[in-house]
Amino acid sequence: MSKQQARFEPYDFNGGTCVAIAGADYCVVAADTRMSTGYNILTRDYSKINKLADKCLMASSGFQADVRALQKVLGAKHLIYQHQHNKQMSCPAMARLLSNTLYYKRFFPYYTFNVLVGFDEEGKGCVYTYDAVGSYEKVGYSAQGSGAKLIMPVLDNQLKSPSPLLLPALDAVTPLTEAEAIDVVKDVFASATERDIYTGDKLEIVIVNADGIRREYAELRKRLIH
């Protein structure tokens, strides 16, 4: 008879994939709506994209209880900022706030993997990508979650400079138009859904541009596990 051990296991991994692309005058962020644990699908209609400010959004994968806790903390801190300064945070300021919040919890971290999108000081689209303890980078595109290892090679191939040694350094925006970026997002998710059981059901796409925020939806592969 095997000996049972009591273990402290506070985390779960609920799967899902997030992708973000920044252009000269827009940002596109997308995520699937499946939430799973192990081989069980908990829900097929769960949004992983959260609005932090008028033109600043965060998409998160990982442990969704920690994601919700992180969203509440950021919302409270942003509300305090608005009361003190009479304005909303800029996207770069929100990026730093998210980094500080994650780093503060580094010894018992939020098990979340985030991408933040919005506009920088010059009005260009920007994407910030994070690890679980707050290290972040401003990039032109990023993917997080269970399907990220399948999607990032495709994005690198389609969007990155042919040579990583090319000088001067490229701007942190992609050369795609908004419509082209949306098509790329749909294609990479369709591919990842075929190979990752934690990604699927429906694709939520949020476009941020000068006109505001627009949402689109597309169907993805469904699996008959419950």
From TrEMBL:
Compartments (UniProt record): Cytoplasm; Nucleus
Family to which the UniProt record says this protein belongs: Belongs to the peptidase T1B family.
Functional summary from the UniProt entry: Non-catalytic component of the proteasome, a multicatalytic proteinase complex which is characterized by its ability to cleave peptides with Arg, Phe, Tyr, Leu, and Glu adjacent to the leaving group at neutral or slightly basic pH. The proteasome has an ATP-dependent proteolytic activity.
Name this polypeptide is given: Proteasome subunit beta
Oligomer and partners: Component of the proteasome complex. Component of the 20S core complex of the 26S proteasome. The 26S proteasome is composed of a core protease (CP), known as the 20S proteasome, capped at one or both ends by the 19S regulatory particle (RP/PA700). The 20S proteasome core is composed of 28 subunits that are arranged in four stacked rings, resulting in a barrel-shaped structure. The two end rings are each formed by seven alpha subunits, and the two central rings are each formed by seven beta subunits. The catalytic chamber with the active sites is on the inside of the barrel.
Gene3D superfamilies found in the cross-reference section: Glutamine Phosphoribosylpyrophosphate, subunit 1, domain 1
Pfam families: Proteasome
Lineage: superkingdom: Eukaryota
PANTHER family attached to this UniProt entry: METALLOPROTEASE TLDD (PTHR32194), PROTEASOME SUBUNIT BETA TYPE-1 (PTHR32194:SF2)
Biological process (GO), any one: proteolysis involved in protein catabolic process
Keyword Acetylation tagged: no
Originating organism: Salix purpurea
